């Protein structure tokens, strides 16, 4: 941390700041220049609140040397993290292939979708048991019964599972069934929920909020990391734009930007980013070409009957085609799709 003084700061004001810094158990290194005087603060920056010093007479500015998201930053952790989800690796050259319906509707339908996605190359099964909907009258999910179905079908096909939690009071319930906990875009800055999820030992899929900056996303990840859970995977899923041709603006540039700032893996979700099946394949490939560590795609075998977001889901055969293309792009970049356990399809789950 660097404290910069105004050009007319007095010795008394400078001494006052030095004493305040040392009272926090930190070291203050004074440097006097021709036009500016500054203090370099050395020590545990978590003890230092910049806004407290910005209000001190004589102080012009306070600059962080490390970013606020220091646990998520690449300065603190130069090597890219690899997150394991039920044996599937994401990051560090491994591609996560997350696929499945928006909402769990029945065991039979999820079984059919999971089998097709698994055969196409998906290595993590997704499905929503608790659904955050814009309208309170829309389908809200099957709750715990849906979690049981997701667990059963995931085990049957040898796929770890990921599902969303919306309520801090349900974190323990969701943790009991799933291999990875998803924090959706609407809850990216639900700091109580982030703290509760940070107290678990489960990998977390953290989606970027619709109006969130990249730093906002990394600060939300910091909440989870600060509670002792290092297993965070970030997700670019589109932000609000002014064009109405797609549901959201797919910010593919966020992928290399995040990777420059953070060691955490980042995947892309072209389904929610575009809301259009015809745009999902090219945006998925663009994300992988930009360096994404995985792709999250919604798959449904009868979108017209889907209880949630059917219009943005790919049919199984469409998913198989794009999954094959993703694999080729990944191979060109020296990456590979992490293997999953042998399928138990055809046996009792």
Radius of gyration: 23 Å
Report the end-to-end length measured between terminal Cα atoms. 55 Å
User: The CATH topology of the largest domain, please?
Assistant: TIM Barrel
Name of the CATH homologous superfamily of the largest domain: Aldolase class I
Q: Main beta sheet, described?
A: 9 strands, parallel
Tell me the count of domains.
2
Q: Report the total helices.
A: 11
What do you see in this structure?
This protein has 349 residues and is of the alpha/beta class. It has helices at 11-23, 50-54, 107-120, 144-156, 171-177, 191-198, 214-226, 254-261, 270-274, 280-289, 316-332, and strands spanning 2-5, 27-32, 37-42, 59-63, 83-85, 88-90, 94-100, 124-126, 161-164, 180-183, 204-207, 232-236, 266-268, 294-298, 336-337. It folds into two domains: 2-63, Phospho-2-dehydro-3-deoxyheptonate aldolase, domain 1 (Alpha-Beta Plaits, 2-Layer Sandwich), CATH 3.30.70.1140; 83-337, Aldolase class I (TIM Barrel). Strands 7, 8, 9, 10, 11, 12, 13, 14 and 15 form a nine-stranded parallel sheet that branches. It has a four-stranded antiparallel sheet with strand order 2-3-1-4. A two-stranded antiparallel sheet has the order 5-6. Helix 3 runs parallel beside helix 11 and helix 10 packs parallel to helix 11. The longest helix is centred in the last third of the chain and has 17 residues, at 316-332. The N and C termini lie far apart (55 Å).
